[in-house]
Structures are given as C-alpha cells and as structure tokens.
C-alpha cells in the first residue's frame, strides 16, 4: 500500500468524523479523496461517493435518532422526490453526457472536467453555508408558511437536490438544511439530524442507478473505505457530546472553501494540458 493511500484512509476517517460531528458537509470531501488520493476516475468516484456517503450517514444518524431529533415525516417528504431525482440523474442523465463536450479555445472540455468543475462550485457554495453563522441561518426561517406550501417547496427542493446529488455524488446537506429550517420549520438541531436521513436515503437510492450497467465496481475497496468512514462517523457522533458542532462548522467551512478552489484550479490546469 502506497503512502498516499494510507493518507487517503486517514482522510476517510476524517470525512466520516465531520459527517458525524456536524451532521453534513463531510460528504463533500469524499469525491476529492477518491479522485486525488486513490486516482479514481471522476464519474466512478461520484458513484462510489453515493454508496459511501449513504452508508456512513446511517451510522452518523444513529445518535440523533436516540436523541429523538430526526423528523421522519419531513425527511420522507423530502426524500421521495430526491430519490426520483438522484436515480434519474445516475441512470439517464450522467450516462447521456458525452465524454467530450466542446472546445474552449485549445482546451477540450470533457465530461470528467465538467463534473469536477460543477463539484468544485458545489464545494464553494457549501463552504459559504457552513461559514455563515447559526443565528443568520435561523433568522431566515422566521415567518409563517402554509402547510401546503411547506410540502410543495420541500418536495421541489428535494427533486433539485436529488438531481445535483446524482451529478456530483455529494450528499447536499448544505442545500437540505436551509430548506428544512425555512420551509419545514425545523430548528437547526432537528434539521441537521433529519438531513442525515435524507442524505442516506437518496444517496443509496442513487447508487442503485449505477448498478446493472457496464461500469465495474470494486466492492472490496468500497467496503474497506466505508469501514473507515463509519468509524469516523461514530467517533464524530461521540465527540459531538462534548464539543459544539456549530463552533467547529465555520472553521471546516473555510477548509472546504480552500479545497473547492483547489479542485477548481486543478480542473482548469489539467484541462489546459
């Protein structure tokens, strides 16, 4: 085993720990870890990420279920359209994207470049969501919203998040949580806990869209990597009893911002050669 792979498994524990500690955001690191440390092709990395994130979220959610913070009703309302979106994205949209999209000057814009570019943009947006203070987020949730509008908005957002999840392989917790706060009326702790339910369901359902095709999946690697992320998630959940996740989230947000810029620059540089 090479040193970079050992570092990759350490990063897997870190990713799971962040997922268990702050209830989301950690999953955004999975694709970069797979692509840069394990040399996994980007499209395959997004498929692996869905399985890893989905499975890890289940274990990360366990402590929140025990604390009765998971709102299953809202989670299911969000998850049903999200499942449709992510499955359709993996089964039909991703395979339909041509390997070579277009030329930008002398640069050949490929499918892999487009996916990594979109992923980098998602990382930057996710970082802003995490850097933003808890108070600012909760302030946006004030105001009465009718029950019907809640269901419509939560369902619509679920479909959009599902499609994006299928494209980039990220859990999308930074998109899920604001909707649960603003339209479903959940407080931040409930929103974080419920987002793990949504992420686990839609990610694993989306992974099913990759089964049965020509793509060869390395189940031994998937299982081994997932063990490390699950250990991290359990450690993160335990640490969350003693450390305020809200205080750590902005710092992690800055880290994700730097990573997002790195991925974006790396994608641009690699495309120029």
Oligomer: single chain
Ranges where pLDDT stays below 50 over 5 or more residues in a row are none
Number of domains: 1
> Using DSSP, what is the number of strands?
2
Beta-sheet strand percentage? Answer: under 5%
Mean pLDDT: 83
Provide the spatial order of strands within the biggest beta sheet. Answer: 1-2
Order of helices and strands: HHHHEEHHHHHHH
**N-end to C-end Cα span:** 29 Å
Helix content: over 70%
InterPro entries: TM_pro_TauE-like (IPR002781), TSUP/Inactive_protease-like (IPR051598)
Pfam family, one: TauE
Transmembrane segments: 7-38, 44-65, 72-93, 113-131, 159-185, 191-207, 219-239, 251-269
Main location: membrane
Structure report:
It is found in: Cell membrane; Membrane. Belongs to the 4-toluene sulfonate uptake permease (TSUP) (TC 2.A.102) family. Its main location: membrane. Pfam families: TauE (PF01925). Keywords: Cell membrane, Membrane, Transmembrane, Transmembrane helix. The structure is a single chain. The protein is globular. The chain contains eleven helices and two strands. β1 (100-104) and β2 form a beta hairpin. A two-stranded antiparallel ribbon has the order 1-2. The chain has one domain (3-271). By secondary structure, it is mainly alpha-helical. α3 packs across α7 (147-168), α5 (111-131) runs antiparallel to α11 (245-271) and α7 (147-168) runs antiparallel to α8. It has helices spanning 3-22, 30-37, 42-66, 72-96, 111-131, 134-139, 147-168, 173-182, 188-208, 219-239, 245-271; strands spanning 100-104, 107-110.
